[in-house]
Design brief:
120 residues; alpha+beta; Tetrahydropterin Synthase, Chain A; four-stranded antiparallel beta sheet; 2 helices; 38% strand
Length: 120
Amino acid sequence: MALATVQVTGQFYASHWLPGHPRCGELHSHIWSYHVTITGEVNPETGMVADFHDIKDRVEEFNGKTLNNFESIGIPTSENICIYLATNLAWSNPTFTEVEVQISEKEGYVSAYTWPNKEE
């Protein structure tokens, strides 16, 4: 099988608060930017690693929502959002060999996570 890489970038609008954090402890919103990179086997039936729209839809499920309501994220930091998205995208397709998610809540502030994490 051939391996290829697909990338999807975009934005979503969501609110959150970080319990106990001095600056971010109150409910506030961001226009979050994301960059998802997936490497995997090209499906011979579709000719794709993944459908771009499926990736976009998975990330943009957060659009217009309060991230604290997604219990499986934990504390909704950009780091935990990256981990949540990368892991869920990876588990959605066993032919994916690597999934990297980058999230930015503000220009110049980027968190990233790559699955599989060789440190875990």
